[in-house]
Amino acid sequence: MDLFLDNFFNLESLRQVYPLLLQGLKLTILLALVAAPVSIALGVAIAVAYSFHRRSLNLALLTYIDLFRSFPVVVLLALIFYGLPFFGITLDSFTAVVLALALNNSGYYGEIFRAGIESVPHGQREAARSLGFGPIREIAYIVLPQAVRNVLAPLASNSLELIKATSIASLVSLPELLRSSRVAQEQTYNPTPLIAAALIFFVLLWPMARWVARLERQTLKSR
């Protein structure tokens, strides 16, 4: 038992590297705080554009969604960070990670918001038009609030997955939590930092996971 604790829960190792883990945690949170709103905004734009039912536009949107959802986000990041310089476009690591997460997740958010918009009864839109609402005001004030309420559970679930996906930043040597824990492990020759990183992720995400589960149960009960 002592050997197990010394290898996986070594407090002395943790004391040496905890500033490194805190730095990684801050960067992980920052990535999520930037990537999630960008992804959601793109997803809303996709869903709203799709709701106008223009054949050529819808075809382009579906192609965009299928394209970026088909790429594993790690592969997408590699193409952005290592491939774009061949075309004269060089992005820093942070921007590349945010762009990869946004392109990948915007497709998922777009489909979620599209389902939410389509779940709003058509009569609601007709009522808005009868009150003199233009297309933009109709979407913003009548359709979207109801759509978001209808798909809150999948929105929260996808956001949870996005936060976990920030660990791809280690691919481009960005010191988020996972990479920081690996560097700390190399410094201490002990896996304790990796265990600490896993526990930090759990503490950070478990409340959100429980909230998602509660939303899903409420959605099932309301059907």
Automatic annotation (TrEMBL):
Keywords: Cell membrane, Membrane, Transmembrane, Transmembrane helix, Transport. It comes from Cupriavidus basilensis. The keyword Transport applies. The chain crosses the membrane at residues 29-52, 73-103, 194-213. GO terms for cellular component: ATP-binding cassette (ABC) transporter complex. It is found in: Cell inner membrane; Cell membrane. This is ABC transporter permease protein. Belongs to the binding-protein-dependent transport system permease family. HisMQ subfamily. NCBIfam families: HEQRo_perm_3TM (TIGR01726). One of its GO terms (molecular function) is transmembrane transporter activity. InterPro entries: AA_ABC_transptr_permease_3TM, ArtM/GltK/GlnP/TcyL/YhdX-like, MetI-like, MetI-like_sf. It is a multi-pass membrane protein.
